[in-house]
Structure formats: structure tokens, C-alpha cells
């Protein structure tokens, strides 16, 4: 019965490599996010959550972004409403997000800073996929 829970040595090596590579990716994202958000990791996570939600059903431009409310983001992150609301106020003051009648959306993807961030993120994702493929983990 115990055999069912054992992992083959090759699978264990792949698992460890996958965890290391994913951890490196997360740490690189965290450092970049801390830089972009002046050391406020929660603000960075709130922004990332909003962007992910906005683009979930989008073709990639701002014409069909799905606005999200502070309550939706707070619930998604399991954070107090007021804590998330303060981050939205800060993000709005910086011009990172726009308030609409239905909620918030990330600023225009045509904005030069947004384009640079998107290129950086794409580079990091490609690096993650290359590193996973190099150890035999196919995406």
C-alpha cells in the first residue's frame, strides 16, 4: 500500500527541479514587483490580481477589459476590504489603474510603461518555460 505514495527517483528529481525553477521565477517577479510598487508587495499583488481578472476574457487590448471591484479583489486575495481599497487609491493616484462605473481596470496597455512591463513579463515567462524544458518538464 505504501508503494502508491512513493515517487520514482526520476519523478522526484523533476519535482525538485520544477519547484526550484518555479521558486526562482516567483522571486524574480517579486523583486520586479517590489521595484515597480516602491516596496509594497501587497500593492503589487493587488495590481497583478486586477490585471489577471481584467484580461481573463480579453483579446489583449483595453476594449473588452472586465472591470473588477475592490470587494472582488479583496475576496480573491482573502484580504480585508479596507486594506485593498487603500491599495486601489494609491494605484489610482499613480495612474496605474482607472476607475470605471463598473469597477477598476488596469491603465491602457498602449502606455509606454505598460508595454515595458509586458515585455519584461514575457521575457520572464519564456525563461521559465525554457528552464522547465531543459530539465525535461514540458509545458
Description:
Helix 2 crosses helix 4. With 139 residues, the chain is mainly α. The chain folds into two domains: 10-38 and 124-139, no CATH class; 40-107, Winged helix-like DNA-binding domain superfamily/Winged helix DNA-binding domain (Arc Repressor Mutant, subunit A), CATH 1.10.10.10. The model has no long low-confidence stretch (mean pLDDT 87). The chain is elongated, with a radius of gyration of 18 Å. It contains five helices and two strands, in the order ααααββα. A hairpin with a 2-residue loop joins strand 1 and strand 2.
Blueprint of the fold:
Blueprint: H1 9-36, H2 41-55, H3 70-77, H4 81-93, E1 97-100, E2 103-106, H5 112-134
Proper CATH architecture of the largest domain: Orthogonal Bundle
CATH class of the largest domain: Mainly Alpha
Order of helices and strands: HHHHEEH
Helical/strand content category: mainly alpha
Taking the sheet with the most strands, its summary is: 2 strands, antiparallel
- Please count the beta strands (DSSP E, at least 2 residues each): 2
Mean pLDDT: 87
What percent of the residues sit in helical stretches (DSSP H or I)?
A: 55-70%
End-to-end C-alpha gap: 31 Å
Amino acid at each position: 500500500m505504501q508503494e502508491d505514495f512513493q515517487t520514482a527517483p526520476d519523478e522526484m528529481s523533476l519535482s525538485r527541479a520544477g519547484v526550484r525553477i518555479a521558486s526562482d521565477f516567483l522571486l524574480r517577479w517579486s523583486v520586479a514587483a517590489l521595484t515597480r510598487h516602491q516596496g509594497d508587495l501587497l500593492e503589487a499583488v493587488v495590481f497583478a490580481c486586477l490585471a489577471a481578472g481584467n484580461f481573463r476574457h480579453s483579446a489583449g487590448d483595453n476594449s473588452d477589459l472586465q472591470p473588477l471591484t475592490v470587494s472582488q479583489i479583496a475576496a480573491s486575495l482573502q484580504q480585508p476590504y479596507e486594506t485593498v481599497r487603500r491599495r486601489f487609491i494609491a494605484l489610482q493616484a499613480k495612474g496605474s489603474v482607472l476607475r470605471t462605473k463598473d469597477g477598476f481596470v488596469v491603465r491602457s496597455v498602449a502606455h509606454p510603461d505598460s508595454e515595458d512591463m509586458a515585455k519584461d513579463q514575457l521575457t520572464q515567462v519564456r525563461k521559465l518555460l525554457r528552464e522547465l524544458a531543459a530539465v525535461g518538464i514540458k509545458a
